């Protein structure tokens, strides 16, 4: 059973706010900028992943098979940014290099959500000397199929929720209600836009 990033519960929004996606979301919201990368957010809700594993593990036909629990309809990063903007928050897309330069001057405290991710975001790998996010752009990512999983789940009633506005609204509500993200984090984005002209 090979899950992708595991997102929060699609009905309640409850999630692990210390994972990569949540920390990136909060960090980018606080800065008001997102790196403009050709990247699909492949994350499946935890309720889907857990239900699928329990069901598949109890089927004799599953023996010896590999099941990828990828999101069948992953969300592009740019669509996600448009969703954030739909709430009236002027978050901006900037080049990856510009985003990195801004990070260097912006993150000064271990309390910042992106602080622990700095090695991941800056260290370069492979003969091409690319960061991990650059190595996983769509043109470089291995193509993983979840068709075998979907076929095995057919008729079970277990379906992976699409990452649409309804589900994202649930996640955002949980972030705010749990205190992970404050309303001020969202409202203060516009106050930081002037910094971009200095990057």
TrEMBL record:
Checking InterPro entries in the record gives: FAR_NAD-bd, NAD(P)-bd_dom_sf
SUPFAM superfamilies from the xrefs?
Answer: NAD(P)-binding Rossmann-fold domains
Q: Keyword set for this entry?
A: Phosphopantetheine, Phosphoprotein
- Superkingdom of origin organism: Bacteria
Keyword Translocase assigned to the entry: answer is no
Q: Where is the Thioester reductase (TE) domain?
A: 1-53
Q: Output this protein's name.
A: Polyketide synthase
Recorded source organism is Symploca sp. SIO1C4
């Amino acid at each position: 059973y090979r899950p992708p990033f595991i997102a929060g519960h699609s009905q309640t929004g409850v999630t692990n706010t210390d994972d990569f996606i949540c920390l990136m979301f909060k960090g980018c919201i606080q800065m008001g900028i997102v790196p403009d990368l050709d990247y699909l957010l492949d994350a499946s809700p935890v309720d889907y992943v857990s239900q699928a594993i329990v069901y598949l593990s109890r089927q004799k036909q599953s023996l010896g098979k590999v099941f990828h629990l990828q999101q069948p309809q992953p969300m592009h990063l740019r669509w996600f940014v448009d969703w954030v903007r739909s709430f009236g928050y002027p978050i901006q897309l900037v080049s990856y290099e510009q985003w990195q330069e801004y990070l260097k001057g912006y993150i000064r405290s271990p309390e910042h959500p992106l602080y622990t991710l700095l090695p991941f975001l800056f260290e370069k790998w492979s003969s091409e000397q690319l960061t991990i996010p650059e190595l996983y752009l769509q043109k470089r990512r291995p193509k993983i199929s979840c068709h075998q999983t979907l076929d095995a789940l057919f008729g079970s009633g277990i379906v992976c929720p699409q990452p649409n506005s309804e589900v994202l609204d649930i996640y955002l509500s949980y972030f705010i209600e749990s205190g992970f993200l404050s309303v001020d984090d969202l409202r203060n984005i516009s106050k930081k836009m002037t910094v971009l002209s200095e990057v």
